[in-house]
Structure formats: structure tokens, C-alpha cells
Design a protein that fits this description.
106 residues, alpha+beta, six-stranded antiparallel sheet, 6 strands
């Protein structure tokens, strides 16, 4: 696989007018479902990343925005990309901050 496991987050302190408090990048993949189709699965750990027996294609990266506390909706899927560097660049551009890798699974 050319893509690697990655979890990252970035506080959105560089854009005070935004309703988002932070951005997250998660590694995801499509897996086969029981009806012959596919579903998207968020990969939570390195162990899950290497357990790709039902994977369909390469893992990819999805950017999520987390809204500030006073919003009814808690998060929003912004976009997905096959390129980790593209995801990082987009989050850093939107937030005005550097992203941090985060592998806490608590």
C-alpha cells in the first residue's frame, strides 16, 4: 500500500469567524459488506490498518470539521483525498495552524 496510517488534528484558532473549532484527518477505507457492496470504515489503529482482509482498494484520508459547542451538529465531513499531503495542506490552509499527528485511541 502506498498510503500510510495517519490521524491528525488541528485547532482552528487562526480563523475566528469560523464556526469550526478544529479539523481532523482520519485514515479510512472501503470494505466489503455482507450484501456484496462496500461501506466506508474509519481506521482507528495501526493494527486495524494492517488487517485489510476485507479492504477494497487503497486507504484514503478524510477531513472532518468539529463545530463549536453551541451548535446542534457536532461534526461535518469536508472532503476525502488519496493524498495525505493534500489533506494536510488543506487543513493547514483553512485553519492557519500546523496539524499535529495524534494516535491516541482512548
Amino acid at each position: 500500500m502506498s498510503n500510510r496510517f495517519y490521524q491528525g488534528y488541528c485547532l482552528n484558532t487562526g480563523n475566528n469567524s469560523s464556526h469550526l473549532r478544529l479539523y481532523k484527518i482520519e485514515t479510512e477505507r472501503e470494505i466489503s459488506d455482507y450484501e456484496g457492496g462496500t461501506v466506508v470504515e474509519s481506521i482507528k489503529s495501526v493494527e486495524d490498518y494492517w488487517d485489510d482482509t476485507e479492504a477494497v482498494g487503497e486507504p484514503f484520508y478524510t477531513i472532518y470539521g468539529s463545530f463549536k459547542i453551541d451548535f446542534v451538529q457536532s461534526s461535518l465531513r469536508i472532503t476525502s483525498t488519496d493524498s495525505l499531503q493534500e489533506a494536510i495542506n488543506l487543513v493547514e490552509h483553512l485553519s492557519g495552524n500546523k496539524i499535529s499527528e495524534n494516535y491516541y485511541n482512548g
